[in-house]
Specification:
The protein is α/β, with parallel strands linked by helices. The chain contains 15 helices and twelve strands. It has a domain of 30 residues.
């Protein structure tokens, strides 16, 4: 603790009695901290009901005060006409959703549809949805039209690869852009009663749910579409900053278990699929077959799948003859074992992560409803949560002040094992 020298205390005592110096002395006792709130204050804002998404919970864990400003007080930036990454993401999602729905209307699956027809669908659907975005944004300038063409090329390239992957996968899409929550049609979630009397309503939309049926076993995987590269970073999961995919899987498995009562619903994967138009870099001239191989490898889905050879082959039938998949990050040794860098976990670990994310969501909701909104943005290596935060002018976070401290992202040793790491996190919470 910083000790104030006696002569400064005396100097302060002298000047604090002079009214003309009051405005200069305010800074001496000023602390850049939000006024403390109680659960009653939060209750007055939302009548004791917290309705949020998983991304909202992640936002709270990234910086509680920014969450409070955005989600509770609804502070917004001035509306300007510009293309945000979320707008492009929405266009990606809506296009892919509409393609799947049109295929379903014909009682077909994506691998049964000729690729030319799929590409024509992209043109039609993008043209339709682009007109609805940002006040006719794409039709106003040549550079905007060029951006739209780039978006279409990324979608077409991604659709080609989805078509390829579906030819070798036993999984079939059963849901797209499916909402969940207490009032949802298919994926219902129960309101969560918190110890302080608040009620949490968790809602969201799941991009894609795939299922593979083997006898009475229903293998379920959840896929999230992204316009940039994403992986499942266990450090972020354990720091409660990446909870979405395991929560989505949990919601789907719980709901399907009540439908397939005579069967077994098995959570088998949480994956990211990047919508992109990748470039191929080569040191020599490649054949068309080699180019396609490189192209499909760029679309390999990142995430975690079940550590069972049978399940891996459901994702990619080629693994019955080959040792490496270009659909999921899995590779076998000559003996048939998984290489250590394969992105696989066992069922106990999958279930433990589902439970951990469920508990983490309730813990964050309880903290917020108790009025805990400190200015504690997350920091990791060169990343700082405040770097692009629109609320910095409001919170005035300054790491040079004693009361303003970053929350450091904790690093965990993966060799310890997921279940042991979760227990380690819980023990840290209690200490």
């Amino acid at each position: 603790v910083y000790q104030v020298p006696d002569f400064l205390r005396s100097l302060y005592g002298y000047y604090k009695h002079r009214t003309d110096f009051h405005k200069y002395l305010i800074g001496v006792t000023y602390r850049n901290e939000p006024a403390p709130l109680t659960s009653d204050d939060i209750r007055r804002l939302n009548n004791g009901v917290i309705q949020t998404s998983v991304s909202g919970i992640e936002a709270y864990n990234s910086c509680p005060y920014a969450f409070f400003l955005e989600r509770a007080l609804r502070v917004q930036e001035r509306d300007v006409q510009k293309m945000e990454p979320t707008d492009i993401g929405d266009l990606f999602h809506e296009t892919l959703e509409e393609i799947v729905k049109r295929i379903w209307m014909e009682n077909e699956t994506i691998n049964q549809v000729p690729i030319d027809r799929l590409l024509n669908l992209v043109d039609d659907i993008v043209r339709h949805y682009a007109d609805k975005i940002q006040r006719d944004y794409f039709n106003k300038r040549a550079i905007n039209k060029f951006l739209l063409e780039r978006i279409k090329e990324s979608l077409k390239s991604s659709i080609r690869t989805l078509h390829y992957q579906s030819q070798y996968s036993k999984y079939r899409t059963i849901m797209v852009e499916e909402p969940f929550g207490p009032n949802a049609t298919k994926l219902k979630t129960k309101p969560i009663s918190l110890p302080n009397g608040f009620t949490l309503y968790l809602t969201g939309i799941i991009d894609r749910v795939d299922e593979s049926v083997d006898g009475n076993k229903h293998y379920i995987s959840v896929i999230d579409y992204k316009s940039s590269r994403h992986i499942i970073d266990l450090d972020k999961v354990l720091n409660r900053l990446s909870l979405q995919l395991f929560t989505y899987l949990d919601v789907v498995v719980d709901n399907l278990a009540s439908i397939y009562k005579d069967g077994e619903v098995i959570p088998s994967g949480v994956l990211y699929y990047q919508i992109q138009n990748p470039t191929i870099n080569a040191q020599k001239e490649l054949t068309e077959e080699e180019i396609l191989k490189e192209h499909y490898a760029k679309y390999q889905m990142k995430g975690l799948t079940l550590e069972e050879k049978q399940v891996s082959m459901l994702f990619d039938e080629k693994l019955a003859k080959e040792r490496e998949s270009d659909i999921i990050n899995v590779k076998f040794t000559k003996k048939g074992d998984y290489y250590s860098y394969s992105d696989v976990i066992n069922k106990a670990e999958m279930d433990a992560l589902r439970k951990f994310t469920r508990e983490s969501i309730e813990e964050a909701a309880l903290k917020y409803s108790n009025g805990e909104i400190p200015i504690t943005p997350i920091k990791s290596n060169n990343f700082r949560q405040c770097q692009y935060c629109p609320y910095l002018a409001i919170c005035k976070f300054d790491a040079r002040l004693r009361e303003n401290k970053y929350k450091e992202l904790k690093k965990y040793k993966k060799e310890t094992g997921i279940i042991n790491l979760i227990e380690q996190v819980r023990q840290g919470d209690e200490s």
